[in-house]
Write a structure and sequence with these properties.
alpha/beta, 10 helices
């Protein structure tokens, strides 16, 4: 199963899969969720609903897409936290990763449930100012991909609809 990061949904909404341009992407997410292909987690939903935009409305109306944190995911908090402290990240980077962003929870959940984490972040193993999802995934043995790899792997097809004449 694919576990979707907030940046995938935000980028989609803001750019290439905007609700008014590519409703097929959002319909595919509904299909993917209904068929146990893709989901996200509640901490991502919490990030999204504070946006006050169409994506926030989508997140509110698709609560079932966002799974709650559970005991298997929580069991991964300690090893992920330990890894974070063994790196040379700044104190601010560690605090951000462990406290304020859904990234920490995504990696823990993906590891617990053997999900592929879908994100637009790129690895940067020498980064000290920010803990990046791909680097945490590598450390925790979690596979990660970008949106387009997920869509291709899932054999998604987003059909074109032509507007009707007025």
């Amino acid at each position: 199963m694919y576990l979707v990061d907030s940046n995938v949904l935000i980028e989609a909404k803001n750019r290439y899969y905007a609700f008014d341009i590519a409703p097929g992407f959002w319909a595919w997410l509904d299909h993917a969720h209904a068929n146990a292909i893709a989901c996200s987690i509640e901490p991502v939903r919490e990030e999204l609903i504070h946006g006050g935009d169409e994506l926030a409305d989508w997140a509110r109306s698709h609560q079932e897409f966002f799974r709650p944190m559970d005991d298997p995911a929580i069991a991964n908090f300690a090893p992920l936290t330990q890894w974070t402290y063994t790196r040379n990240y700044t104190a601010a980077a560690v605090t951000e990763f462990l406290t304020y962003a859904a990234d920490f929870y995504l990696v823990a959940y993906a590891r617990a449930h053997n999900h592929v984490l879908v994100t637009h972040e790129q690895p940067s193993p020498n980064s000290r100012r920010r803990v990046l999802i791909p680097d945490a995934c590598v450390a925790m043995g979690v596979t990660y991909e970008n949106t387009f790899t997920m869509l291709r792997s899932a054999r998604a097809q987003l059909g074109l609809q032509f507007p009707t004449a007025a």
